[in-house]
Amino acid sequence: MKYEAEINGRAVTVELEERDGQVTARVGERLYEIEVARPEDGDYLLFIGNEVYETRVWAEATGGLRIKLRDRLFQAKIIDRKQRRGAADHGPEGQQQLTSPMPGKVVRVMCAAGDEVIAGQGVVVVEAMKMQNEIKSPKAGRVSEIRVSEGATVSANQVLAIVE
Amino acid sequence: MFKKLLIANRGEIAVRIARGCREMGISPVAVYSDADRTSLHVRVADEAIHIGPPPSAESYLHIDKIIDAARRTGAEAIHPGYGFLSENAEFARAVEDAGLVLVGPPASAMQLMGSKTNARQVAREAGAPVVPGTTTPLESVADAIATAEQIGYPVMLKAAAGGGGKGMRLVRARDEISSALELAQSEAAASFKDPAVYIEKFIERPRHIEIQLIGDRFGQMVYLGERECSLQRRHQKVVEECPSPIVDEDLRRRMGEAAVRIASRAGYYNAGTIEFLVDPQRNFYFLEMNTRLQVEHPVTELVTGRDLVHEQIRIAAGEKLSFSQNDIVLRGAAIECRIYAEDPHHNFLPSPGRITKMATPAGPGVRYDSGSYAGWEVPIYYDPLLAKLCVWAETRAAAIDRLARVLDEYTVEGINTTIPFFRAVVENDAFRRGDFDTGFIERFLQDGFGVHGLSDDEPTRRLEDLATIAAILHARAKTRQLEAATPRTTESRWKHTGRLAQRR
Q1: Is B390 in contact with B298 (CB distance < 8 Å)?
Q2: What is the ipTM metric for this complex?
Q3: Residue A90 — pLDDT band, cuts 50, 70, 90?
Q4: Which of B67, B161, B321, B440 could be stapled to B216 by a disulfide with Cβ–Cβ 3.0 to 4.6 Å?
Q5: What dihedral do alpha carbons A45, A47, A53, A54 form, nearest 10°?
Q6: How far apart (Å, rounded) are the C-alpha atoms in residues B105 and B217?
Q7: B288 tagged catalytic
Q8: What's phi and psi for B76, nearest 5 deg?
Q9: Which of B187, B288, B296, B301 is catalytic?
């Protein structure tokens, strides 16, 4: 199977086959023969000859993956080809959703539906752990919808407003 | 000795105090808000009293509810931890009035040292060096200019009731002073309901070094060495160590004796900390006093071998200090990292949420004080401190090597933490040399600390490849799990779910 991945922001293509815990993978020009064990959920123990690499993988609230390997922490996205085609339709033009980067509480709504905004203008302020975060419009346009009100509790990635 | 003690706090410090209680045969009582019903500090208690909704003002800061909780459970003493009500003299008085014992200083000393201008006055009277400046609030812009001219620019305007960097303004020249004073006063009024602002000479590239004190009610006061707390982000400490790499026997004795004189003059007892600024020529100046147990007390405990919480409780129960100054010997070096639920790669954005899994470090020289566990949801309402990770070793260099090893063993899954940030700090040459000041972290972040170990060499590419492969294996496994959970029939998911519900 062929996969497209993004690891710490770098795009790579990986060919990977697995049979009975034996993985053959080609990353770019490098070929790996790996024996894989799974001691616990999310934990992948990779054996290459005498070398052993314990990798822990978990999903982030924002949808990406985190991988801990020895003294490194990586961020990865595995991109499905279908998904990528879909994503290409949403450029910076058209509708933009403003989402909360973290769970928290809405402490201020700075625009109303119908307001014109400039790029970088604050629309909603979300507070968590005594830290306030201003969610800004990514582009100039018109606020077509405000989906939260002051005092509301929001989760990570929840849509707060839409700018057209 | 007390039989029961109420802990008026939450998170890691409440757990740490409960541990101290257990070791002394005292039954720990917890208090909790709606957001903390299943938090670790409740799980480790014998009794737990619900004190209200999540916002601190309606729960952990509510004096009457805390006193009432102590009364209802028959607790004889209250330990306030740090933060919340720990430096609130009104609370200290309320505890005394209720016939209970506060594990801390007397309300009078707390009040006196809680005001920065009064505390500076006390330090001066005690013959301790203070940063040149005023001890009374500034009256006017003219007053500010006259004082600044007298002590020389740059100067710092500070809120008298301040803390945490609020109401502070740096002034480098005369034409900046009027607007800076206005800003500092309005910020002070907004944050502390007190617009009083005073002026201090600004010490360039200072280190922040503090002395741990503990004293009993019989006038015995001892200093337990210093803590190096110069590594700060936005005036919040992030890494602390004991001893300081620049403090020698002589400086330690001079700072320690000055600290003891200041606290004694204030009529202080129990644990407290005197903070000093130390300039590049190693002159030290009194900064302020913290009238409580500090977050970073474990590094002192590791190096002195003394348990500050045990000692605090014994002193509160009316016992004498169990050691004298001559008994205090510093052995080895300890470093603490404050592990926060923040994303260091995105400007330390708060990262509350569910901790899905956790691997905690162990082995020689590790001390882990935590208020979190796998499966726990980090609430959005409170300080983001998850845990304190401390190491001890024979020397500072060995402690740093150990810290690198220990950070690599530590994984918190589901939320972002500051672990990768500390992993990068540990690699920094200036940090390893002990060559830093309070501006170190800001400069370190400006340089872009990036991702530790990210480079283009062969071993790194190999690790990156393996991480990618593991990520793909994980994504495949999750897709397969999802497919297995979805029936391969043409009937609708709704019908299927309905049937499952019926079967239950």
Answers
A1: yes
A2: 0.78
A3: very low
A4: B321
A5: 10
A6: 9
A7: yes
A8: -95, -20
A9: B288
